[in-house]
Design brief:
Blueprint (H helix, E strand, L loop, with lengths): L1 H15 L17 H8 L4 E12 L6 E10 L8 E3 L5 E4 L17 E3 L7 E10 L4 E13 L11 E10 L6 E13 L5 E2 L2 E3 L1 E5 L15 E5 L1 E3 L4 E9 L6 E9 L3 E8 L1 H5 L2
Parallel strand pairs: 11-13, 12-14
Antiparallel strand pairs: 1-7, 2-6, 3-4, 4-5, 7-16, 8-15, 8-17, 9-10, 9-12, 9-16, 13-15
Length: about 280
């Protein structure tokens, strides 16, 4: 009888999570078909799109920097008095280490050949920084549903939870593209909801550096692992769990910018898969 009691408890949770079972609010477990009962007891990971919205952001596109270089030559401004002889040779009064004019024993100014000082090239750099331009992100919400009470116990693990593969679209500008966790409904085998904190993250494209991740506290937490790549690359966005008290079902939802990221596939993370 314990199996049916647990199945009935999780059936209520399944309906609350909007799992696709027609008439689940109207039937008792005993009246379910074997196929319906199997669907309640165990499910594969279900991934679907549940909505999208346009969001105006200013931090996605970084400030653009334009640098213009121009060269010039320095000009010696010190006035030098020279004497030119009949052959066109120039002479200048000789000076000592202190800069004083040198004279001979008769008091006449000593001269020396004049050497023209070369000009020194210099470079002037002008930098213009354009302000960041607001951009519109099309944030798509994707849902991952799963439950399994077939082993009559919770799944205990920490580490890699879910993995979603994305293609960074060609031409995507350098910047930080948010991966926002928007829903964390988790349940244990007793059909009790778990208190879960979500930490969002970023896919950093090109030269962009992702903001520092929020630290994980002592409670049950699902966090996004930041990842960096270039336009045209394929990347794995991994969600990890910490301080997991044990779970056997969840409705997990997150958002990403479809202008930059193209969804490819989703699966259990390595640490989660290892206990299944």
């Amino acid at each position: 009888m314990k199996k049916y009691v647990k199945a009935a408890a999780f059936l209520a949770l399944a309906c609350a999570l909007a799992m696709p079972m027609a008439g689940c609010n109207k039937k008792g477990v005993e009246s379910l078909t074997s196929e319906e009962l199997e669907a309640v007891i165990r499910s594969d990971l279900q991934i679907s799109v549940v909505g999208s919205e346009e969001v105006t952001v200013t931090e996605t596109i970084p400030a653009e920097t334009t640098t213009a270089n121009s060269s010039s030559e320095s000009v010696t401004t010190t006035t030098v008095t020279t004497v030119t002889d009949a052959d066109g040779n120039k002479y200048v009064a000789a000076t000592d280490a202190q800069g004083s004019t040198v004279t001979d024993n008769a008091g006449a100014v000593v001269t020396e050949p004049y050497v023209e000082q070369p000009t020194v090239p210099t470079t002037t750099t002008t930098t213009t920084i354009a302000p960041s331009q607001p951009s519109v992100s099309l944030m798509e919400t994707r849902q991952a549903l799963w439950w399994d009470i077939s082993k009559k116990d919770d799944f205990h693990f920490n580490g890699s939870f879910l993995k979603f593969t994305f293609k960074i679209k060609e031409g995507t500008a350098d910047g930080n593209y948010p991966i926002n966790i928007v829903k964390t409904d988790f349940s244990n085998y007793d059909a009790k909801s778990l208190d879960v904190s979500g930490i969002s993250g970023y896919v950093s494209v090109g030269s962009a550096e992702a903001p520092q991740s929020e630290p994980v506290g002592s409670g049950f937490t699902v966090s996004t692992v930041n990842v960096s790549a270039n336009a045209g690359d394929t990347v794995d966005v991994v969600f990890r769990v910490d301080n997991n008290p044990g779970l056997c079902g969840f409705d997990f939802q997150f958002q990403y910018d479809t202008n930059a990221l193209e969804f490819v596939s989703g699966s259990f993370g390595e640490d989660f898969a290892a206990v299944k």
